[in-house]
Fold:
Amino acid sequence: MIIAHLSDLHLGFRAHGRVERGADMRERDVAAAFERAVQEVVRLKPEAVVVAGDVFDRPDPPASAVVALARGLETLRVSLPETK
Structure:
């Protein structure tokens, strides 16, 4: 049995004040790493996916972090419809 475990995503993490085209570059890096992790989970086709720990970096995440999470979860739902 394969169980995928994603933990401490910290979506929305911002650091170093580096902004390009209105987006914090560290936040973008964290979201991109989450996207790669989701693609790897899809490739592995686990029987269950567990998301634990700090999903967001702070209690009031920016909308971009909520969107990144929603997109990732939707990808998992569509790509792995039988996975718990």
